[in-house]
Amino acid sequence: MNMGKDIIVEAIAREMHTGVLAVDKNGKALYANPFFLKAFPVAGGVEGKPISEVIGNATLLKAVSAAFAPPVTPPCDDIEISETGRVFKARLVALGEAGQAVLVFLQDITEEKRVETIKKDFVANVSHELRTPLASIKGYSETLLDGAVEEKATLKEFLRIIDRHATRMARLIDDLLVLSKLESHQLSMHPAPLDIRELIHTTVKGFGKQAKDKGITISAEVPDSLSKVIGDRDRLEQVVVNLLDNAIKYTQVGGLVSISAHKANNTVRVDVSDTGLGIPEEDIPRIFERFYRVDKARSRELGGTGLGLAIVKHIIQAHGGKMNVKSAPGKGSTFSFSLAIQGAKP
Q: How many domains, the chain?
């Protein structure tokens, strides 16, 4: 069976995940594939319309117009443009020796730009987080080397400070390694029947002294008949530890911290609540981002790495769950997650 080249070319252009626009030497559109029209919607199609009615982006419109101006040499460099909240890379290709037409190819690079920004932010954040403890360690070490080591009281205090900053750096590096493995799905999970009631009570008991020293009441409300869940004990313990630690850190003296669990359909829902500082509404969507802090100075003062909630989110997602947060400034916060009950149907 013979099939015309035009039909084949049309089918290819229609299915491409790259925008294609053909413009003639008179500045009128000849063709635009569906991908292009999605980025630059044109009612009634583009055929025969002036290019100015097809392209609304001034940068791209200028490049197309320049491509037909003598000498006819469309720009070799790719052009980056933003349109409807997305980023595109546009490339112009001349058709015919006399510049009879120009093809515009439009590639969506929004995701590439997002990943690039994340990488840049990550490097900047890690550098910033390590710079402060490193500067302190270097400063106190130099002071000791300059003679302060002879003063026993000063020596002990400076070594204590150096140790604290070294511990903070070690904790940051550990969290980075865990988060990296979680995000790349390289951290093995070992799901098994788990008594979530026992895990909660054991963890709460471990925070007894920390809560008492700060004058905070910590409690657990878990029914004896609560069903077992399916999960990795070590990782879920890490989740509960992180959430309780944050709750105590950001709750004032005399406040309350509680953790409860109850059956909800085929899952067990766990809530960690506090009467602490609370989180502004505009910050809630971002608190699970790496290094995002509502109060940066206070978080660092309390020893936070800025990665705890990101780790919590990924662990819960690996268990097929989702984190939920309810909070209000001055009224406290509640972090919640659900786990599948042993033997329950999805």
A: 3
Task: Give the whole-angstrom CA distance, residue 144 versus residue 160.
Answer: 13
Do 47 and 76 lie in a common domain?
yes
> For 273-297, what is each residue's pLDDT tens digit?
999 989 999 889 888 988 887 765 5
Which residue, among 85, 83, 22, has the nearest Cα to 48 in the 3D structure?
A: 22
Q: Let me know whether 122 and 233 are in one domain.
A: no
Contact between 216 and 248 under an 8 Å Cβ cutoff? The reply is: yes
Residues 281 and 171 in one domain: no
Determine what percent of the chain is predicted with pLDDT higher than 90: 32
Reduced to 3 states (helix: H, G, I; strand: E, B; else coil), residue 193 is strand
CA angle 102, 114, 123 (to 5 degrees): 130
> For residue 27, what are the contacts with CB-CB under 8 A and spacing of at least 6?
50, 51, 52, 65, 68
Residue 345 belongs to some domain of the structure: no
- Do residues 294 and 317 both lie within one domain? yes
Q: What is the CATH number of the domain that holds 120?
A: 1.10.287.130
Q: Using alpha carbons, select from 239, 227, 157, 159 the residue that is nearest to residue 198.
A: 227
CA distance 269 to 262: 6
Residue 17 has pLDDT above 50, yes or no: yes
Claim to verify: residue 220 and residue 313 sit in the same structural domain: yes
Coarse DSSP helix, strand, coil percentages of the chain, rounded to the nearest 5 percent: 45, 25, 30
99 Cβ neighbours under 8 A, 6+ residues apart: 25, 67, 68, 72
What residues make up the domain containing 148? 113-183
Say if pTM beats, i.e. exceeds, 0.70.
no
**Sequence-ordered list of residues with C-beta below 8 angstroms from that of 143, at least 6 positions apart, any chain:** 158
Quote the tokens at residue 121: 């932010």
Q: What tens digit of pLDDT does each residue of 75-87 get?
A: 556 788 887 778 8
What is the overall mean pLDDT for the chain? 85
Give 296-342 pLDDT, tens digit per residue. Answer: 555 555 556 778 899 999 999 999 999 999 999 989 999 999 999 88
Q: Are residues 173 and 218 in the same domain?
A: no
